[in-house]
Amino acid sequence: MIRMKTDTNILHCESPEAALGCLCNGFVEAAAGELRFDRVEANDIPPACRGLLVHDGHMTEALESFYGGPMDLRVIRERLLGDDYRREIVLALKGGGQIVEYGVVRMDLACTSEEVRGEIVARERPLGEILIRHDVLRRIQPQWYLRFAADSKLLKDRFGGHLERQAFGRIGVIHCNGQPAIELLEIVIGKGAGGAGADANRQAAH
């Protein structure tokens, strides 16, 4: 179960449950609270999803390489309070294609230039693409890898019903210009994701 907390930085959290509580608190906790997951090591992730998650690069780049084309951003909900910007999103294959990633993001826009800030809140292009194009000095720091149960109503809804087996994800932080500016949950299914089968599916924690 996710315990909602008000910590300002998930780098101070001692567990993925606490980190998700911080990330979702006051924003999407009602939906995220039903997620069932357990923590896994990188080697426990099926190859299709491992290549998308186990790296220190942007998810946008990994997805475009994996699927062979650009991504479209769809913002489900957002909240902007001063420099604190949160949004729940999915990324899909460009042109109305398959949804390939679900994410929850919290950003400190004070760490970005006005031009970058404007492009982010315009909601037209994925975050990773914007940071790369503007050559923002950045470092991606994955904190935890997670396995999500296949019967999650939230994930089935977000992936458009395309969740036959487990999904896998990571919680991490993006440092921009030396500051921990962006905290995020990224969940993918990948081609052939969940190849560990039904036995592994039953292991997802409540």
**CATH homology group:** Chorismate lyase-like
Any idea of the CATH topology? Chorismate lyase
CATH architecture designation: 3-Layer(aba) Sandwich
Question: How do the strands line up in the largest sheet?
Answer: 1-5-6-7-4-3-2
What kind of sheet is the major sheet? 7 strands, antiparallel
Radius of gyration: 16 Å
Low-confidence stretches: 1-7, 192-206
Task: Present the secondary structure layout.
Layout: H1 16-24, H2 29-32, E1 37-40, H3 47-53, H4 59-67, E2 71-81, E3 84-93, E4 99-108, H5 114-122, H6 127-133, E5 138-148, H7 153-158, E6 167-176, E7 179-188, H8 198-201
Short key terms for the protein model shown above:
7-stranded antiparallel beta sheet; disordered N terminus; disordered C terminus; 8 helices; single chain; 206 residues; alpha+beta
Description:
The chain has helices at residues 16-24, 29-32, 47-53, 59-67, 114-122, 127-133, 153-158, 198-201; strands at residues 37-40, 71-81, 84-93, 99-108, 138-148, 167-176, 179-188. The chain has 206 residues and is an alpha+beta fold. The protein has a seven-stranded antiparallel β-sheet. A hairpin with a 2-residue loop joins β2 and β3 (84-93). The longest helix has 9 residues, at 16-24. The chain is globular.
